[in-house]
Amino acid sequence: MEQAIPFSEVLDAVETLSLDEQETLVNIVKRRLADRARNRLASDIEESRIEFAQNRCQAVTVESLMEELLK
Fold first, then answer.
1. Does residue 25 form part of some domain?
2. Residue 46, domain member (yes or no)
3. What pLDDT sits at residue 1?
4. What pLDDT, in 10s, does the model give residues 24-38?
5. For residues 20 and 28, is the Cβ–Cβ distance under 8 A?
6. Is 56 helix (H, G, I), strand (E, B) or coil?
7. How many other CB atoms are there within 10 angstroms of residue 22's CB atom?
8. Model confidence, pTM
9. Which domain covers residue 55, as residue numbers?
10. Are 47 and 36 in contact (CB under 8 A)?
């Protein structure tokens, strides 16, 4: 497994980049984070579909759902 670079070293390395390179880096990181979030959501949706197909879900009213969430 590859050794992680300490966060402070990453920040120092970013400081050596030009402003344009820093902006490009920020855009790349934002896109990658969005991709990870999308992939996680897609995985959650697929898991929910499987649970639904296996009848492991039960119908609830909005009221009972809100009551459960506010506990």
1. yes
2. yes
3. 57
4. 999 999 999 999 999
5. no
6. coil
7. 13
8. 0.69
9. 17-69
10. no
